[in-house]
Amino acid sequence: MSHVPAELSYTKEHEWIVFTSETTARIGITDFAQAALGDIVYIQLPKVGESVTSGKVCGEVESTKSVSEIYSPITGTISLVNTDLDNAPEAINSDPYGAGWIAEITFESKPLDLLTAQEYDSLTA
Fold first, then answer.
1. What burial class does residue 10 get, using C-beta atoms within 10 Å of its C-beta: 0-12 exposed, 13-18 middle, 19+ buried?
2. DSSP assignment, residue 36?
3. What is the DSSP letter of 12?
4. CA dist 71 to 1, 58, 102, 123, Å?
């Protein structure tokens, strides 16, 4: 059973999001997603300054099993990326909600289609 922190919001595509300020959010992939992928060996991070759209691809993660796209859970601009993942992409496996975060996005409005932890948990059950 995967870990689903209650303080985060989620997407049906298995990304998580936490609002770190009124205009900034941090994103990553869920514990469920990293477990399904297996050992992560590479991540293509979005670029700082890049515009992203909610529900659209913003990066890619490669594991020993497959390559999977990362979808932005919010529309905005990439303001920071976790460059530590360049040398240690396996942090997504060991700590998907901490050291394995992917990017921070500056946004103007919060999306309305995010799932609560309970809703996401029932989706993956």
1. buried
2. H
3. T
4. 23, 6, 11, 17
pTM score, two decimals?
Answer: 0.96
Rounded Cα distance, 54 and 78, in Å: 12
DSSP-derived secondary structure for 67-109: EEEEE-SS-EEEEEE-THHHH-TTHHHH-TTTTT--EEEE-SS
Q: Sheet containing 24-29: give its strands across.
A: 9-10, 15-19, 24-29, 103-106, 76-81, 51-52
Kindly give the confidence (pLDDT) of every residue in the chain, 125 residues in length, as a single tens digit, with 9 standing for 90 and above: 689 999 999 999 999 999 999 999 999 999 999 999 999 999 999 999 999 999 999 999 999 999 999 999 999 999 999 999 999 999 999 999 999 999 999 999 999 999 999 999 999 88
Domains in the chain, start-ordered, CATH in brackets?
9-109 (2.40.50.100)
Instruction: With beta carbons less than 8 A apart as the criterion, state whether 30 and 61 touch.
Output: no
Indicate the DSSP class of residue 116: P
Using CB atoms within 10 Å of the CB of residue 76, give its burial: 0 to 12 exposed, 13 to 18 middle, 19+ buried. Answer: buried
